């Protein structure tokens, strides 16, 4: 393993100022998501402490959080490892996320404001630009932000927190599969329909479009992961 480095350009943007604990969890999770810390690898605690300028105590507290989130496996007396990617977890994650997408659609369509429409519309425009330029890393980051913003429009903090946890797990899979470019283009077209339903403030239509989008993304990811040697 070479020198550890967190790529800030691939980090989903945080809202507001994060605490040291939250920042540590986020930075360590990013190392696992992008593969700097590889699946099954032993967590180099001493190196991470030097990298982040912290003692072992906050680092180990962060590892406990990451274990709950499914990114780390804690092994008594043997140290922690990066939890291996488990393809069998993809469908269950998306099934749960599909239920949340429906709830987001039902609530966001009723609570969306013009300010919300302007903000998410700007993200949608940026997504189109990234797709046109073939900037897939940027597209993935903006896609994450788009769906996070849509969840926030629901106005349900617990829903957003649960949804964010599932999105972070899915984000990790995106770094180990090569998504078909045609699927990315189809995904953007689906976003167009999502925006139409959101602007029209039609809850059932928005919920149905989000559920379908989630299902197609799951199917594409399952196909992609089957192609990994």
Q: Could you characterize the architecture of this molecule?
A:
The chain is mainly α. It folds into two domains: 8-82, Arc Repressor Mutant, subunit A; 87-226, Four Helix Bundle (Hemerythrin (Met), subunit A). The chain is built from nine helices and two strands, in the order αααββαααααα. α5 (114-133) runs antiparallel to α6. The protein is globular, with a radius of gyration of 18 Å. Mean pLDDT is 88; it is low at 6-17.
Question: Which key terms come to mind for this protein?
Answer:
single chain; mainly alpha; Arc Repressor Mutant, subunit A; Four Helix Bundle (Hemerythrin (Met), subunit A); globular
Task: Summarize the SSE layout with pairings.
Elements: H1 20-33, H2 45-52, H3 56-68, E1 72-75, E2 79-82, H4 90-111, H5 114-133, H6 136-153, H7 157-174, H8 181-200, H9 203-226
Antiparallel strand pairs: 1-2
Helix pairs in contact: 1-3, 4-6, 4-7, 4-9, 5-6, 5-8, 6-7, 8-9
Question: Can I get a quick summary?
Answer:
The chain has helices at residues 20-33, 45-52, 56-68, 90-111, 114-133, 136-153, 157-174, 181-200, 203-226; strands at 72-75, 79-82. By secondary structure, it is mainly alpha-helical.
